[in-house]
Amino acid sequence: MAEQKIDFTRSDDRINTLLEYVQEIVDLSSLAALADWDQQTAMPDGANEVRGHQMATMSGLVHDRQTSPQLGELLKSLEDVVHQPQYSDADRALVRDTRRAYDFAVKLPRELVKEMEIARVDAFNTWVKARANNDFGLFAPKLKKIIEFQREVADRWGYKETRYDALLDAYEPGFTAAKVSALFEPVRDVSKTMLKRIQQSGNKVDMSSVSGQRFDVEKQKELCIKALKAMGYDFNRGELRVSAHPFTTSFGSPFDVRVTTRYQEDYLPMGLMGALHEGGHAVYEQGVAPTLVRTPLASGATMGVHESQSRLWENIIGRSTAFWKGQFGLVRECFPEQFQQVSAETFARALNNVEASLIRVEADEVTYNLHIIIRFEMERAMMNEDVSVESLPSMWNAKYQDYLGITPDSDANGILQDVHWTSGFGYFPSYTFGNLYSAQIYNTLRKAYPDFDERLAGGDVSFVLNWLRENLYAYGTIYQPEELIQRVTGEAPNPQYLVDYLTNKFSQIYNL
Amino acid sequence: MAEQKIDFTRSDDRINTLLEYVQEIVDLSSLAALADWDQQTAMPDGANEVRGHQMATMSGLVHDRQTSPQLGELLKSLEDVVHQPQYSDADRALVRDTRRAYDFAVKLPRELVKEMEIARVDAFNTWVKARANNDFGLFAPKLKKIIEFQREVADRWGYKETRYDALLDAYEPGFTAAKVSALFEPVRDVSKTMLKRIQQSGNKVDMSSVSGQRFDVEKQKELCIKALKAMGYDFNRGELRVSAHPFTTSFGSPFDVRVTTRYQEDYLPMGLMGALHEGGHAVYEQGVAPTLVRTPLASGATMGVHESQSRLWENIIGRSTAFWKGQFGLVRECFPEQFQQVSAETFARALNNVEASLIRVEADEVTYNLHIIIRFEMERAMMNEDVSVESLPSMWNAKYQDYLGITPDSDANGILQDVHWTSGFGYFPSYTFGNLYSAQIYNTLRKAYPDFDERLAGGDVSFVLNWLRENLYAYGTIYQPEELIQRVTGEAPNPQYLVDYLTNKFSQIYNL
């Protein structure tokens, strides 16, 4: 990507005025994100209701600011000139993203936003209980409410062909359900094919080094911190906590980007790979150019591009033999007894067991996209068809039987496993977008460094982070996904890279 | 106190409109408090600057709301009617407190509020470094800035006799520097007298059971949690963390009230008594009537009344033999080795060592008020006289020599020891107000329960909490301090109760 100044044209007063507008909005949104982080990692249960009110107040306020008539006027006036060469790509992106948020927001009345926020908090709190008690019936009325709100949102935003398009476009601009289906098709095919070939081979991966023994949780945390530091996550701008579902959040990228993971005492990859996944999101946000701070541009380009970085770090790098050859000392330091007889190769192999399983976040690279495609299809049905909420668990279970050949033993391990639907629909496809983009970016990275594996195996990780920072992270949201992937890799998004990556990697691991 | 409905007249639309105004303000202030809590207990250093901007944005927003002309009109119209008998004491207090905040805020321009918030964050961050490096010179320019801002604030608010009166009145309505001096005089006299008598007696308290051994910090935390539960702090509405300076904060009383303490491995009372102190603040806020939630009334009446509850629980109850007779099992559970040979009486006695010391937060009940009176006098000088910032450390040290007979060995243990001045002046006197009120309330409590000591020694603490909730906590800020103390104790604030309490308690402990 050509060298370019990543900054706003601060000599222009209209740009400065727009910056002041968005800085206020971003400051408030950052504090709302902090409240959400607190709610998921620390808040006492007794505060649920009052926190719901506080979040609703904040959402309403942000909404007011995003829809102010003065902002509308300012955007119009800038849209007349910002294409001119004296303006920067950052200026153009600022106008574009602010316009997008403005248009989304003006189409949603403030009262609706408040109601939706109260419903989200309510759904989240109920989901926690419903999952703990394996009681979908408890969650069903909340999900029904979410579906109704999401349909109303889609109708108000507008869409090309189907309701679900509106929500997809919100996360990955330019994409529709039909386009996504076409892009996902080769991924679904290679996933099913590879799963069958692996199952038929009868070959197994030995997981005994990472599973079924006791891994002290405090030591796991220490390992996660060391692994995050090894990949370049900056703890002077971040923190690691525990939450029910791992996530990354930012209260002012690139300066405050925090991650969570969760630990399972007898299964090391749960905590460690969760940390690497969130670490991938986090190094992306920590790598945004500081000139973009307190603007909507200080973030990942889209949810899909964001996921490309969590998947790149977790899977492509974090489950590679080369990476663990370079970092195995960290594992042995934290768990000397468990790993004194185990090689880096055996450890890395143990992270690549392929199995048809029930839980998305524990799924391997081969089956992962099948979990996503099921959710994509269910969201499409909830948005575009008249399915009853009561029928959703059986629809879920039938799809798992169809795609993965297994049926969930409980709703807690089935339809209740993910937090995402408490916030609405359209996010899940991002994970498979992420896998698609990550394989394509990885291909480019390997071309840039023909000695890629040797460097990693020698303990150097910084060359990967530096290349990604320079070519991708620094730009924040300046470029939209298709242009961005074109700029980074020289080619539009192409599923063939993921198909090849999965085929090659797992043919080798499973000796097919 | 007569039974009375603690609620607003919700059938009146003007009251409802006022409630909507203040709920929004309180919601935002709660989220700002959450951000401050995060900053002091978790936030990575790299986020200092961006967080400063976020807090400034939030302050500005709250300021806008507190000064909106519509709110001014609404207050005027309610002030014409709210004295009528169909309105409740809660309505009247809501109008009074909102008016007070409105008047304070309209006198401070939004730009000034923003600058002050940035200066506060800057001063706080500098203070952390200055204290760590024992470098007053680093902090001096920040303190100078704070003094200038506080003078400007006082001038804008207005005052009766001296500048400092404005700040005192903000914390303890109705009080001036002259009134405070008069009230504090008997306290200063009894403190100096008792200190001298104790020193001259040559008698000592044996502290070896709580000091100079190793007390595992995790176990200390466990003990703090158990002790907080014993006094009735509700963890379903709270949390305990660690911070450099212990504090209590609320993000929606009575439903989310959190506390911090700090631990010293070789000195048990640091963590434990810090937790009981903050626990006292916290049970007060957790005891506010739920009808007052999301209003400015859901808080302690004043800083002084708030301190009366932290001092009551920390000192009067938490350093009494009767309390530890009832709760010594907790101490032995956490530290069986250290306390198997120690009695509850010996433990309680060890918590009452009297000594002229440098550090306020470690001071005993006899000398504590001398630390406060020094700060009171220094604040008065900074506000009312032309003292140079450079001369403050020597002024501080001279006063310690005068009042306590000792001189600080370093500024870190002297003028840099407290965080308070980074937020301005006027708070410190609250601690001695707290001691005055607490002794008076304790006197009333003992009259209500002639078997007070026997109950406590038998392990019952709930009768104390229940009485305080019913007679004091539930009312939040409805009554101002002089009226409140009159209602709770049947008498105006009277320093004689503290004089008697200190004289009797320490004559007995030191066998004078």
UniProtKB/TrEMBL annotation, chains A, B:
GO BP annotations listed: proteolysis
A molecular function GO annotation: metal ion binding
Its EC number(s): 3.4.17.19
Pfam families, per database record: Peptidase_M32 (PF02074)
Keyword field: Carboxypeptidase, Hydrolase, Metal-binding, Metalloprotease, Protease, Zinc
Cofactor: Zn(2+)
Cofactor note: Binds 1 zinc ion per subunit.
Active site: 278
Keyword Manganese carried by entry: no
Reaction equation(s) it catalyzes: Release of a C-terminal amino acid with broad specificity, except for -Pro
Residues that, per the record, bind Zn(2+): 277, 281, 307
InterPro entries, A to Z: Peptidase_M32_Taq
Function per UniProt: Broad specificity carboxypetidase that releases amino acids sequentially from the C-terminus, including neutral, aromatic, polar and basic residues.
Family to which the UniProt record says this protein belongs: Belongs to the peptidase M32 family.
PANTHER family xrefs: CARBOXYPEPTIDASE 1, METAL-DEPENDENT CARBOXYPEPTIDASE
Protein name in the entry: Metal-dependent carboxypeptidase
Protein's organism: Thermosporothrix hazakensis
